[in-house]
């Protein structure tokens, strides 16, 4: 029985899961759901995720929600080296950088992407530039820390690609479609790390599921 | 004491590790000092050092401690169980502690700093907390603990925020959720938790 994922692939949380499945070479079926039709609030969906959020993954008898919990399960089962498994230190560094993405990078980068790309395309409203500016300042400081780490190691948790790197891809895919991509491009090691991530076949495949980024207009210089 | 520091200490107690707490005085901005920046460039606590390994992010530290100490609180020898631990650990972070954090800040920290509690923020977050507690009540009506019929880090990770909820002025919010109340009482009754609660009560905490 193939693994099933429920959700809409334009969600960076759904696509984060798809990226891990692609990286692990796992056969999966994406069960289409409509955000507009509020499929995620239907009783049969809430039975799978009591918080009524996407994604959900079904793997045999197991039903999981929370994209990072799902990602960990997929990698633990099908590609444990991506979690630093087998090394106490390595797995700790992976866990640390996965949480750094969630707590330090995603809030500002996600807010910028929402204001610049997602709100105009999906919510039909203009960006709030004050929100953008505040988050640009935060993100600059965060990215300096990333640059300092990536001077020392090829990937965030060491010299092997792990979930710590992969978890960044889908949010950054949207962020890099804004004019603030220059914040990343200005940092040689972060920029090289990003390009390497985006060049992976799994990332390219998943990027096709998230077309908002590709079509978004860039600010005129 | 920072809820994130408390989380790490309880895991050290769970595995019976010897440890030393080095205070970082956030009221004097010590967490922004160059010395602390070298340990955690994001300027937060806790930072954990074990030999040459330096870690931050309390749940990452907690998992390291539990793995190294041979604890079964992560269930990593079982795919299905460890996945459920991960799910409910994310729920703790994203739905419980994240709504408790502004409540704790407004009700405890703001008055301590001489300010006035923003009751609107407190009310908004109490409503979010009730939504989460409804989910927890349903879950704990079916299973003894969050990840299943076994206790895990997912349960224990709630204790720091729960300590403040149980000791604060909004404890009655739990009355509508009897399974949650009983489950929390059991978590708070663990020897490791009781030990750290004593540390949290110290004036220096």
From TrEMBL, chain A:
What residue stretches are annotated with the GST N-terminal domain? Answer: 1-82
- Entry's Gene Ontology molecular function annotations: glutathione binding; glutathione transferase activity
Name the Pfam families for this protein. Answer: GST_C, GST_N
Q: What class of enzyme is it?
A: transferase
Looking at the record, the residues that make up the GST C-terminal domain are 87-221
Alphabetical UniProt keywords: Transferase
Question: One biological process GO term for this chain?
Answer: glutathione metabolic process
Enzymatic reactions: RX + glutathione = an S-substituted glutathione + a halide anion + H(+)
Q: Which SUPFAM superfamilies match?
A: GST C-terminal domain-like, Thioredoxin-like
This protein is called glutathione transferase
TrEMBL record, chain B:
Keyword list (alphabetical) reads:
Transferase
EC number(s) of the enzyme? 2.5.1.18
* GST C-terminal domain: residues covered: 78-204
Q: Where is the GST N-terminal domain?
A: 1-73
The keyword Acetylation belongs to this UniProt entry's keyword annotation:
no
Question: InterPro entries given for it?
Answer: Glutathione-S-Trfase_C-like, Glutathione-S-Trfase_C_sf, Glutathione_S-Trfase, Glutathione_S-Trfase_N, GST_C, GST_Phi_C, Thioredoxin-like_sf
Q: Transferase as a keyword?
A: yes
PROSITE patterns named in the record? GST_CTER, GST_NTER
SUPFAM superfamilies referenced in this protein's UniProt entry, alphabetically:
GST C-terminal domain-like, Thioredoxin-like
Task: Quickly give the catalysed reaction.
Answer: RX + glutathione = an S-substituted glutathione + a halide anion + H(+)
Q: From its record, what is one biological process in GO terms?
A: response to herbicide
**Which Gene Ontology terms cover its molecular function?**
glutathione binding; glutathione transferase activity
Q: Name one Pfam family in it.
A: GST_N
Q: Which GO terms describe its cellular component?
A: cytoplasm
Q: Domain of life of the organism in this record?
A: Eukaryota
Family note: Belongs to the GST superfamily. Phi family.
> What name appears for this protein in its UniProt entry?
glutathione transferase
Biological source species: Miscanthus lutarioriparius
């Amino acid at each position: 029985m193939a693994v099933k994922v429920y959700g809409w692939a334009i969600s960076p949380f759904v696509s984060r899961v798809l990226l891990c499945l692609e990286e692990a070479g796992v056969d999966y079926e994406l069960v289409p759901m409509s955000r507009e039709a509020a499929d995620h609030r239907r009783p049969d969906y809430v039975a799978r995720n009591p918080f009524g959020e996407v994604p959900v993954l079904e793997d045999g008898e197991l039903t999981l929600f929370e994209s990072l919990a799902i990602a960990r399960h997929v990698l633990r089962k099908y590609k444990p080296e991506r979690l630093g498994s087998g090394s106490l230190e390595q797995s700790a560094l992976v866990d640390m950088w996965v949480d750094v993405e969630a707590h330090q990078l995603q809030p500002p980068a996600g807010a910028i992407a929402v204001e610049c790309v997602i709100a105009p395309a999906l919510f039909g409203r203009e960006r709030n530039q004050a929100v953008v500016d505040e988050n640009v300042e935060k993100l600059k400081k965060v990215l300096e820390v990333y640059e300092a780490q990536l001077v020392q190691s090829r990937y965030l948790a060491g010299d092997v690609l792990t979930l710590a790197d992969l978890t960044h891809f889908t949010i950054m895919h949207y962020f890099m479609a804004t004019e603030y991509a220059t914040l990343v491009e200005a940092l040689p090691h972060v920029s090289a790390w990003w390009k390497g991530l985006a060049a992976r076949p799994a990332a390219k495949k998943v990027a096709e599921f998230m077309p908002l980024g590709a079509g978004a207009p860039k600010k005129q210089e | 004491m920072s809820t994130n520091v408390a989380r790490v200490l309880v895991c050290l107690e769970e595995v019976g590790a010897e440890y030393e707490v080095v205070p970082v005085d956030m009221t004097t901005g010590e967490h922004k000092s160059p010395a602390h920046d070298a340990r955690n460039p994001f300027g937060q606590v806790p930072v954990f050092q074990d030999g040459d390994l330096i870690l931050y992010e309390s749940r990452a530290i907690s998992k390291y401690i539990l793995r190294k100490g041979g604890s079964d609180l992560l269930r990593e020898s079982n795919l299905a169980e460890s996945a459920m631990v991960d799910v409910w650990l994310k729920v703790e972070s994203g739905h419980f502690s994240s709504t408790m954090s502004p409540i704790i800040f407004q009700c405890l920290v703001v008055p301590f700093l001489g300010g006035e509690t923003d009751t609107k923020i407190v009310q908004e977050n109490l409503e979010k907390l009730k939504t989460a507690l409804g989910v927890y009540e349903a879950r704990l009506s079916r299973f003894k603990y969050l990840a299943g019929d076994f206790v895990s880090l997912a349960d224990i990770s709630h204790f720091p925020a729960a300590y403040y909820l149980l000791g604060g002025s909004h404890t009655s919010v739990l009355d509508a959720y009897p399974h949650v109340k009983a489950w929390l009482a059991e978590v708070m009754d663990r020897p490791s938790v009781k030990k750290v609660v004593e540390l949290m009560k110290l004036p220096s905490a």
